Amino acid sequence: KQEVTQIPAALSVPEGENLVLNCSFTDSAIYNLQWFRQDPGKGLTSLLLIQSSQREQTSGRLNASLDKSSGRSTLYIAASQPGDSATYLCAVRSGGSNYKLTFGKGTLLTVNP
Amino acid sequence: DGGITQSPKYLFRKEGQNVTLSCEQNLNHDAMYWYRQDPGQGLRLIYYSQIVNDFQKGDIAEGYSVSREKKESFPLTVTSAQKNPTAFYLCASSIKGGLYNEQFFGPGTRLTVL
């Protein structure tokens, strides 16, 4: 059974700092990994999708990497801003998953002005 | 604007009542999904549908029902058989139900049992 873990559960940083969020998964036989952002009481916004054949994806100040063999992904946020404050969720789609995504519990990020 | 809409934003249910949550998308996506989110837990899949008139149970389907009569609509009914329905419900869609496609989410409905 696939399990996804995100560390840390919460992170507080000053504005302008570069930071890394971590995601690990137990079954390396994945099809893809998706990073989401969730603001309080809101739905999920898709940030980046990495296919299993890819090593990384970039969008603006965000860079996500994938090391399938070790079961890890990182989300790097450059020059953090207060508007980046949100919960970041990692989800994987793995073999035999019947199309579902398996989610981690998220990292709550607070960027202080 | 293309996107996924969910209504209502907030819903209150009395014990023994069935309630229906609406999900509509104008993205021309074939596949649609319902997830449940509880505090401190990851999202869990309730039902999914890859094409019209077809749907499959997810991990926590008991006490829920769905229909998929139109491509753009995938309503979720929370029945009285669901013993702990208070949660945040999220609808999602993807171009197709394949394993490589990105899922997009709606704004959610918060259901509270009175």
Q: Helices and strands of chain B: which structural class?
A: mainly beta
Helix and strand element order of chain A: EEEEEEEEEEE
Number of helices of chain A: 0
Q: How many β-strand stretches of chain B?
A: 11
Largest interface: A-B, 26 and 29 residues
- Average of per-residue pLDDT values of chain A: 93
Oligomer: heterodimer
Helix content of chain A: under 10%
Molecular shape of chain A: globular
The value of Rg of chain A in angstroms is 14 Å
Find the structural class of chain A using helix and strand composition. mainly beta
Q: Given the structure, what is the number of helices of chain B?
A: 0
Give helix and strand order of chain B, one letter per element, not per position: EEEEEEEEEEE
Number of strands of chain A: 11
End-to-end CA span of chain B? 35 Å
**Secondary structure: helix percent of chain B:** under 10%
Biggest sheet character of chain B: 7 strands, mixed
Low-pLDDT segments, ≥5 res of chain B: none
The average pLDDT score of chain B comes to 92
Low-pLDDT windows of residues of chain A: none
Estimate the strand proportion of chain B: over 45%
3D structure, described in words:
The complex is a heterodimer of chains A (113) and B (114). In chain A, 0% of the residues lie in helices and 58% in strands. With 113 residues, chain A is an all-beta fold. In chain B, the strands form two sheets. In chain B, strands 2, 4, 5, 6, 9, 10 and 11 form a seven-stranded mixed β-sheet that branches. Chain B has a four-stranded antiparallel β-sheet with strand order 1-3-8-7, with no helix packed on it. The radius of gyration of chain B is 13 Å and the shape is globular. At the A-B interface, strand 4, strand 5, strand 9 and strand 10 of A face strand 5 and strand 10 of B.
